[in-house]
Write a structure and sequence with these properties.
The protein is mainly beta. Helices cover 14% and strands 42% of the residues. The chain has an 8-stranded mixed sheet, with no helix packed on it. Strands 2-1-5-9-8 form a 5-stranded mixed sheet, with no helix packed on it. It has a 5-stranded mixed sheet with strand order 30-36-35-32-33. α2 packs across α5 and α3 runs antiparallel to α5.
Length: 615
């Protein structure tokens, strides 16, 4: 007979392999029945019922090992029907290895070691602000796996999940728990992700440090966290206020400041963010008609690289691209330093074992664009309770990077996170959008600009400039101010020029704002203007020209401008043009004599010219 040491790995995934002396993995068959039971405090009690069966008559297993993707395991207990099995525990950087020695050698074909393993962990369920999030590992299929049954039990007080993936095959409940069951094949493809709650709230305080080392004035800008399909931002203050706020093609909110020579300027932005599981109702949907901007090759997104092109042709879809990256890149925790160099997509294919979130993101974008799938990058804040399972790689105030692809079936930008899909060992961050990702900037037309909050530092500064923490729902204040700049008096026969300004004086962005014009006397070709987006602290100016009237027109009119949240009026008096002469007769006399003098001078000059020709 041959002694075999059987080892299994559970690192948010299940792997099975053998240890010396070498044996084929099909020497054994394994059957798992696992229950994850979460209590009201979020502590998960996990119980494995394992059956390890000999497939040959001359072998037996002397021990069994699992590696669990958590460093926070307590109350570990292994046993079988005859008593305790005294497991050996080894804790690493990301995992806890449990080796279970068998006290009895069971020999013979179809004979089984039947045993149990139990432990508690705080790494599978988290209450994050208003939301409970649950992440259960996926199963990696191996030849020795015979069956895998998993149940997830959650307290009835959690309510119904707002999202759960994959779809459970059944649900049962009692007074204390709701239990979900899943298809084995679904758990091979992805782990279980469940969210109880639909909206997460964060408060933020962001500091920006600008300096102008030049001897001349410069214009510069900062990127403010914008609204997105899943994100609504509420601002409390922006001090000092900018000269203007503009939107770029990606939807970034760029606040402009004029800096004097040698000036340093510190800017503070505070507010709250609502992160939604479903698209925000008032965020305008759109069809991406011109996709070229999000398909082009750029630095770090080398779509024309032969390796990128070949791989993109093989993968073709966002789901397959995501899964390839999750399965093939290895997160390099050793690169988390202040001097991290961004490899880019092409280079990381040659350095698959040295990737951080930037490379996971860059490779997804490059492969997607090469496969004619519009894609872009996001830099922002991502909340994590375990930096080993869900690491943050951008060192400016611990930020994170993740990609988005444009879904042509829903006409929306869809966020995914292959980095965390990899580091959690297969938790589904493709089909399942969590509520922990807070967008600071969007990178589509440029792979390097704009830079996010936390990256605006002056030379030598190592200040903490990003503070984000859980909060509660904040009131939205939607208001505007209309300002009309037109002369109070004018003269007939001439057009009157001025401006209309709609200023957002509230704390949230406004969309599709309409400004309408009403007048009894001035008839305009256009009496309604639409403003697609008006971020907080911003304004939009409309040039206005009141058409000329007859030269004898004489009236006083009140023009009225109306928007959704404000109204403004302006009284204009129009005087006949002849009153300009009558009311200013002295000037009229001077002008008349000047004209007569000019005519006489021209005649004399002309006569003198003719006399010279006679000579």
């Amino acid at each position: 007979m041959v002694k075999k040491i059987f080892i299994a790995l559970l690192s948010f995934t299940l792997f099975l392999w053998s240890k010396a002396p070498v044996a084929a993995i099909t020497d054994f068959s394994t059957n798992y029945s696992i229950n994850y039971q979460i209590n009201k405090a979020g502590l998960t009690h996990t119980k494995f019922d394992i059956s390890l069966t000999n497939n040959l008559s001359n072998i037996y297993a002397s021990e069994f090992s699992l590696s669990i993707g958590s460093t926070n395991l307590n109350n570990i207990n292994a046993y079988n029907s005859k008593g305790g099995l005294d497991p050996r525990i080894a804790t690493g950087n990301k995992t806890t290895s449990i080796t279970i020695p068998f006290k009895e050698n069971i020999l013979g074909k179809d004979k089984s070691q039947v045993f149990q393993l139990e432990f508690d962990s705080k790494d599978f369920a988290h209450q994050l602000g208003n939301v409970w999030e649950i992440s259960i590992p996926k199963l990696q299929k191996t030849d020795s796996l015979n069956s895998y049954n998993l149940t997830l039990s959650v307290p009835t007080s959690f309510g119904s999940p707002s999202a759960i993936s994959p779809t459970p095959t059944s649900k049962t409940s009692n007074q204390d728990f709701v239990t979900y069951r899943f298809n084995q094949e679904d758990l091979i493809l992805k782990g279980i992700s469940a969210t109880f709650g639909t909206v997460q709230y964060f408060d933020f305080s962001l500091n920006y440090h600008l300096d102008n080392p030049n001897v001349y004035q410069v214009k510069t800008e900062i990127a403010l966290p914008p609204d997105t399909t899943y994100q609504k931002v509420i601002y409390n203050q922006l001090t000092p206020q900018p000269d203007s706020i503009d939107l770029d093609i990606d939807g970034n909110w760029l606040a402009s400041y004029i800096l004097s020579p040698k000036q340093n300027l510190d800017i503070l932005a505070t507010g709250s963010a609502e992160i939604n599981l479903n698209p925000v109702a008032d965020f305008p949907g759109f069809i991406l008609e011109d996709q070229n901007t999000y398909l082009t090759s750029q630095k770090y997104w080398e779509t024309n690289n032969p390796n990128i092109t070949q791989l993109a042709n093989e993968l073709k879809t966002p789901a397959k691209i995501y899964q390839y990256i999750v399965d093939n890149l290895i997160y390099d925790y050793g690169r988390l330093s202040e001097t991290t160099t961004r490899f880019g997509a092409a280079n990381v294919l040659d350095n698959k074992d040295s990737a951080i979130c930037m490379e996971f993101t860059d490779l997804f974008i490059a492969l997607s664009r090469a496969a004619s799938i519009p894609a872009r990058a996001i830099n922002g804040f991502a909340y994590t309770t375990n930096s080993s399972l869900r690491p943050l790689s951008l060192k400016q105030d611990i930020l994170h990077a993740w990609p988005e692809y444009y879904d042509t079936t829903t006409n929306t930008w869809t966020p995914v996170d292959p980095t965390w899909g990899n580091t959690t060992g297969g938790v589904d961050f493709f089909n399942f959008t969590d509520l922990n990702h807070f967008v600071f900037v969007i990178l589509g037309q440029d792979s390097q600009y704009p830079v996010p909050a936390g990256a605006y530092k002056t030379a030598g500064e190592e200040t903490k400039d990003v503070d984000v923490h859980f909060s509660t729902k904040k009131p939205k204040n939607q208001q505007t101010k209309l300002t009309i700049k037109l002369p109070e008096k004018s003269f007939s026969g001439l057009p009157i020029n001025g401006t209309i300004t709609l200023e957002n004086t509230g704390n949230v962005a406004l969309y599709n704002q309409s400004v309408s014009f009403v007048s009894d006397h001035f008839m305009l070709d256009k009496t309604n203007w639409s403003i697609p987006v008006l971020p907080p602290f911003s304004s939009h100016q409309i040039n206005l020209e009141l058409p000329s009237t007859t030269w004898t027109s004489n009236f006083t009119d009140t023009i009225t401008l109306t928007s959704e949240f404000s109204q403004a009026s302006k009284e204009i008096t129009l005087l006949p043009t002849y009153t300009l002469i009558l009311n200013n007769y002295k000037y009229a006399i001077i002008i008349s004599f000047s004209i007569i003098f000019l005519i006489i001078t021209l005649k004399i000059t002309n006569k003198h010219h003719q006399n010279k020709q006679l000579w």
